[in-house]
Specification:
about 650 residues, alpha+beta, four-stranded mixed β-sheet, two-stranded antiparallel ribbon
Length: about 650
């Protein structure tokens, strides 16, 4: 589930209408009408200052200048990309120290789930396994992967890394590239189509890739922060409003939409909503634009819908009507909303952030989708006031405010005190929107702010006062004042238990057959996902019961969603023992119930790590249920094949 930066689309929309409203040329041509020699490349300030070499003939100067311009432009891109990559490595540095042994300090389930999905991609590529559903966890009911963001578009390209280094390394690679790649994608799009000043594009790309919201998701959700396709989706939508080849452009958009659907559908939905709101805001201010735009836009969108619909028809059928399909999110996340005060506080993973101060302003630390800080919030308002005469700025402001209000959720609150009912209460039950986490609408507002920053730097650099140096210094000071408090810091990490040697040494293979399960103790669940990491470390060569995923309640296809599969009484009891260390009193009824569950799971062995928290109370509890086990390497093992044999 999940995503965030749909708003990005908005920025480009304005560029098209304000720069070349009457042109039907390609995006590159419309972006830089002032440069006849190289229409696809906006000039840098240095280039515009020295238009020609005075001492050289015009014939020879032009090719030399063009070559120099192309070379310096390339160097600019490489330098900015290197900066973004270094920043991403800085943010993820503590995970890189030990990818397998370190994890975000809270909510450790999401990284384990993503690593499980990455291992599933290996099976899809190497063994031709069905990509949209698996029985490798939550056996025997299985899990609908299309309804669980299986990140196939990220996992399949990462198969070589996963095979060579394991899913934990693939996870941190995806997080690093997600941050840097998103920033770079926005930089390229902005520098080519919206602004001429490299600094303006770099500032806008930086904030879109390293905003507090992106940093918040980086520890847990690589699928949400991998937004490198969004700038291009947004631009292709805007190109359709003046396209001379709408069928071709619609087909290109369909390919981008299809790829994004296999990264994160929620982000794709946000992008579509943001584009729609932005375009409506433009048309409301200048209705005359509709006469020229409706025909190519309609043809292009129809082409995109038909082609993307054909490509995604079967996967979407599996998602909404296939085995273990569900409708609507779990009640645990449906009412996740931002507090108004969250927009004025710095995010936890930033220089000025304070986890303890933010505890009541967001649903949890992985969903800090606002948190711009006072200085940036005031600067964003100031930019809108300053540039209020520009159509694009007004449309962006409408888009950002609209989704900021929706992100407040069903109840609008200030410092954890509910004030009024929010508009989301009237939308939450609509199709598709019932699968959205409302706080994530704040990701759209983040992108809008990034675009406003880019426009503000561009306009400031274009001012022609007597002392331009002073203007540049003041602009840089304003950016530092706004962005320094929310500068990214390394993500907080804690150590986690290693995958047992019993698993990595393949000792489990002597017990577990292809149609049997290995049951980790405690049984995998939303709060305990170590067993999922064990399976992922073997590229899912064995099945496990339970796990962390979204599924229909009680395993009935079509029901409302919930986290986890069918409730397991004994599984819940063992999880309580692992948490509290208290050994329960057991009776014959509970032993029979556990035996029934072992048969339902087709369990071969139960495995309890020696270093598991409260391992001794867990060992005594399991022994009371199924008899004595034996230690093998670094785990306790109970061979329950004779107990779970259904023929007995």
């Amino acid at each position: 589930m999940t995503a965030p930066t749909t708003a990005p689309a908005e920025p480009t929309a304005p560029a098209a209408p304000t720069t070349a409203p009457a042109e039907t040329a390609t995006p590159a041509e419309t972006a830089t009408p002032a440069e006849p020699a190289t229409p696809a490349e906006p000039a840098t300030p240095a280039e515009t200052a020295t238009p020609a070499e005075p001492g050289a003939p015009a014939e020879s100067a032009a090719p030399t200048r063009a070559w120099w311009r192309r070379w310096t432009r390339r160097r600019q891109h490489l330098a900015v990309g290197g900066l973004f990559l270094l920043a991403a490595l800085w943010v993820t540095s503590r995970i890189w120290l030990d990818p397998s042994g370190r994890v975000a300090s809270l909510y450790t389930g999401d990284p384990a789930q993503v690593q499980f999905f990455l291992a599933h991609s290996v099976r899809v590529v190497l063994h031709g396994e069905y990509p949209f559903y698996t029985e490798q966890f939550n056996y025997p009911d299985g899990v609908n992967l299309m309804a669980n963001t299986a990140v196939l578009a990220l996992g399949i390209p990462m198969v070589p890394v996963t095979l060579l280094f394991g899913p934990a390394v693939s996870f941190v690679v995806l997080v690093t590239l997600g941050l840097a790649g998103t920033a770079m994608a926005w930089y390229l799009m902005l520098s080519r189509h919206l602004v001429r000043t490299p600094l303006a594009a770099a500032v806008g790309g930086w904030f879109c890739g390293f905003s507090p919201a992106m940093l918040s998701h980086a520890s847990w959700h690589p699928n949400i922060i991998s937004q490198f396709l969004l700038p291009f989706i947004v631009w292709r939508v805007l190109v359709l409003t003046r396209s001379v080849k709408p069928v071709r452009d619609g087909a290109l958009l369909a390919l981008l939409v299809t790829a994004q659907a296999f990264i994160n559908e929620e982000i794709l939905l946000f992008t579509a909503l943001a584009c729609g709101v932005f375009l409506l805001a433009v048309l409301a201010q200048e209705p005359a634009r509709w006469r020229a735009a409706w025909r190519p836009l309609g043809v292009g969108v129809m082409t995109c819908a038909l082609l993307a619909g054909a490509l995604l028809a079967y996967p979407l059928y599996v998602q909404f009507a296939g085995p273990m399909a569900y409708h609507g999110l779990s009640d645990a996340v449906k009412d996740y909303g931002n507090d108004i005060a969250a927009f004025f506080a710095p995010g936890s993973p930033t220089l000025g952030g304070n986890q303890r101060a933010n505890i009541n302003l967001a649903p949890n630390y992985s969903e800090e989708n606002a948190f711009f800080g006072w200085s940036l919030s005031m600067l964003a308002i100031g930019i809108v006031v300053w540039l209020r005469r520009e159509l694009i700025v007004r449309a962006l402001a409408v888009t950002g405010v609209f989704f900021a209000v929706l992100s407040l959720g069903e109840g609008v609150s200030w410092w954890d005190r509910e004030l009024i009912t929010g508009p989301w209460q009237w939308l939450v039950h609509l199709p598709l929107l019932d699968a959205v986490v409302p706080t994530r609408f704040g990701l759209i507002t983040s992108v809008v702010i990034g675009l406003l920053l880019a426009l503000a730097v561009e306009r400031a650099w274009a001012l022609r006062p007597a002392d331009r140096r002073t203007v540049h210094v003041l602009t840089a000071a304003g950016l530092a004042f706004a962005l320094l408090p929310i500068a990214p810091m390394p993500l907080r990490m804690v150590s986690r238990p290693p995958v047992p040697d019993f698993i990595t040494a393949d000792r489990w293979r002597a017990y577990v057959g292809p149609d049997q399960t290995l049951v980790p103790i405690p049984v995998p669940s939303m709060g305990n996902t170590h067993g999922m990491r064990w399976a992922a470390a073997t590229n899912l060569d064995f099945k496990i019961p339970g796990g962390y995923f979204l599924a229909p309640r009680n395993g009935n296809t079509g029901d409302a969603g919930r986290f986890g599969g069918r409730p397991s009484g004994v599984g819940q009891m063992l999880e309580e023992v692992a948490t509290t260390g208290r050994t329960p009193k057991l009776d014959d009824r509970q032993r029979r119930r556990f035996t029934d569950e072992l048969r339902h799971w087709r369990a071969a062995i139960l495995v309890l790590p020696v270093r598991q928290q409260n391992a001794e109370p867990l060992r005594r509890t399991v022994e009371e249920l199924v008899g004595p086990g034996r230690q093998e390497l670094d785990v306790w093992v109970w061979d329950v094949r004779t107990i779970s044999d259904r023929s007995v």
